[in-house]
């Protein structure tokens, strides 16, 4: 039956610098490029073939998808970019060093901001520097739905229309899909696909550049999950 591959982008420059990234459009690091290429080779070795590809509107995910498809000889397949696959918006934390933020607010508070399901980070004002409201990527969106900060719960609510409108119908039609996106947008999808509880989702990690393969039955119930290790 249909297969879905989720892959978190390769290491970004801000992953390397230990900064909160969110919707900031940060590029891949050299290691991230190599991770993306290695993932493409793993996919090629596995024999996985895709009918459709999806990614966010942030270049670390877009480039990861392109490296993966190029290395697996599938760069030609239809591709769609959507803001709904963006990383979780980290609000006013974006651009801050995680270690320094923990020293200022305490490890427990930062852990809650990073990993809890329904606690919001400090919000970024719509008129603040770096606000997504001013970004041309989102010019066609109602400013009221452009976030100033998100938790995983809000991220899941944002991702689900994309899943229901785009991905689920293709999987039900027997098509194979690859999604290259971000740690938290993919954690949100995994929560839904695997029916992970609000508490247990805090422990789910998405490694950079590691393809996760889901198999489904004809009613879109997950039947198997496999990681193509680095």
Automatic annotation (TrEMBL):
Superkingdom of source: Bacteria
Reactions accelerated catalytically: (2R)-2-phosphoglycerate = (2R)-3-phosphoglycerate
Active site residues according to the UniProt entry: 9, 87
The species this protein was found in: Levilactobacillus lanxiensis
Described purpose of this protein according to its UniProt entry: Catalyzes the interconversion of 2-phosphoglycerate and 3-phosphoglycerate.
Gene3D superfamilies: Phosphoglycerate mutase-like
Endpoints of the signal sequence: none
Residues reported to bind substrate: 8-15, 21-22, 60, 87-90, 98, 114-115, 183-184
Family indicated by similarity: Belongs to the phosphoglycerate mutase family. BPG-dependent PGAM subfamily.
GO molecular function: phosphoglycerate mutase activity
Pathways per UniProt: Carbohydrate degradation; glycolysis; pyruvate from D-glyceraldehyde 3-phosphate: step 3/5
InterPro entries associated with the record: His_Pase_superF_clade-1, His_PPase_superfam, PG/BPGM_mutase_AS, Phosphogly_mut1
UniProt EC number: 5.4.2.11
SUPFAM superfamilies, per the entry: Phosphoglycerate mutase-like
Protein name per the record: 2,3-bisphosphoglycerate-dependent phosphoglycerate mutase
Alphabetical list of NCBIfam families matching this protein: pgm_1, PRK14115.1, PRK14116.1
Keywords: Gluconeogenesis, Glycolysis, Isomerase
Site feature location: Transition state stabilizer: 182
């Amino acid at each position: 039956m249909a297969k879905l591959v989720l892959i978190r982008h390769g290491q970004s420059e801000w992953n390397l610098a230990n900064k909160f990234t969110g919707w900031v459009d940060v590029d891949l690091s050299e290691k991230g490029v190599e991770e993306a290429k290695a993932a493409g080779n793993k996919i090629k070795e596995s024999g996985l073939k895709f009918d459709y590809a999806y990614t966010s509107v942030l270049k670390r995910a877009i480039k990861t998808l392109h490296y993966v498809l190029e290395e697996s000889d599938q760069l030609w397949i239809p591709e769609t970019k959507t803001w709904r696959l963006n990383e979780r918006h980290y609000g006013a934390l974006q651009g801050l060093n995680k270690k320094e933020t923990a020293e200022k607010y305490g490890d427990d508070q930062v852990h809650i901001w990073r990993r809890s399901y329904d606690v919001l980070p400090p919000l970024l004002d719509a008129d603040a520097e770096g606000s997504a409201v001013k970004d041309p990527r989102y010019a066609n969106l109602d400013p009221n739905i452009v976030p100033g900060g998100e938790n995983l719960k809000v991220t899941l609510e944002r991702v689900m229309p994309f899943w229901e409108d785009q991905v689920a119908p293709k999987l039900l039609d027997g098509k194979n899909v690859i999604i290259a996106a971000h740690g938290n947008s993919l954690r949100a999808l995994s929560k839904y696909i695997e029916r992970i509880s609000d508490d247990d989702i805090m422990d789910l990690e998405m490694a950079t550049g590691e393809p996760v393969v889901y198999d489904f039955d004809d009613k879109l119930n997950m039947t198997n999950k496999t990681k193509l290790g680095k």
